[in-house]
């Protein structure tokens, strides 16, 4: 008899709880402060991590921040005083590392959410939030997850970014209803 379908969901929730409990609270607070103090926030990521970063940019915009997704046709140039926030499990995606270097050369701050602090992006970032999950390239047996590839990182990334949204809302004494004025209305 097959196991109950929610058995897998329970395992995923346990993995997420274990992973999120291992994140350093000071890193969450430091990234929250970087975002709060940036003139504009630019987010980037590749693949599913990029989708999580896009969702975060949407929430920042709804809170009244100047937030942009790198690569969109309406995204302006980054400048000194801005923040480039990159989500990358491995921290080695070449296009993202090139973006980080370019942002630094312009005088923008770089922050990374990654698994590997000693990665290229981890070294380029002035502020890092480390998620202790398995990378999609982890060797078999080395993974701390039963989920495929970078799934645990991507899930934890979304939840941590939502946590930062809550922290920012608290700093601004902002209620969810106030954010609705910036919600899309042409749907």
UniProtKB/TrEMBL annotation:
CDD domains in UniProt: SIS_PHI (cd05005)
Keyword list, A-Z: Isomerase
Pfam families on file: SIS
MF term (GO), any: isomerase activity
Domain of life: Bacteria
Annotated SIS domain residues: 31-174
Gene Ontology biological process: carbohydrate derivative metabolic process
Signal peptide coordinates: none
Classification via PROSITE patterns: SIS
PANTHER family linked to this entry: 3-HEXULOSE-6-PHOSPHATE ISOMERASE (PTHR43443)
Family label: Belongs to the SIS family. PHI subfamily.
Matches recorded under NCBIfam families: RuMP_HxlB (TIGR03127)
Protein name per the record: 6-phospho-3-hexuloisomerase
Upper classification of the organism: Bacteria, Bacillati, Bacillota, Bacilli, Bacillales
